Amino acid sequence: MGKERFLSLLADGDFAMAATFRQEYIDLLKHYYYVGGMPDMETYYWTNERNTSEIDFLLDTGRAIVPLEVKAEVNLQSKSLKAFADKYHPNLSVRSSMSDYKREDWLLNLPLYAIGCISACI
Question: Is the distance from CB of 53 to CB of 47 less than 8 angstroms?
Fold first, then answer.
């Protein structure tokens, strides 16, 4: 898992690079958690033509495609999710983060701990 390199960065005082590795590790854990915690449905990934926007997961419910953006912290900036929604007009978009449950017209914020219940929400 690269722990030795991470420890070396800390020992050398390279905290900026250590923070980068930490974020990458959090991102990997978050995706592993989501794939394992999701109900049995097909998942896909989306990126735009210029690779400037991406959606972490596209969920195929059998009735609709639901974009899901995963945020590891409380940062709720979801520019890619908004761009996808503006272009493809899904009935619902989902963002999951450390923030509380919140439902808006086009967006559902589902807390990380509730990902296992996503089927009931979409």
Answer: yes
pLDDT in tens, 5-35: 767 777 787 777 777 776 676 666 666 666 6
Check residue 50 and report its DSSP letter: T
How far apart CA 107 and CA 113 sit, in angstroms, is 18
Which residues share a beta bridge with 109?
A: 95, 102
- Longest CA–CA span in the chain (Å) reads 53
Predicted TM-score (pTM) of the model is 0.68
Which structure tokens are listed for 99? 């923030």
Q: Which residues contact 37 (CB under 8 A, 6 or more apart)?
A: 115, 116
Nearest in space to 30 (alpha carbons), one of 88, 75, 63: 75
Domain map (residue ranges) of the chain: 1-37, 39-121
Q: What angle do CA 38, 44, 50 make, to 5 degrees?
A: 140
Phi, psi of 51 (to 5 degrees): 55, 35
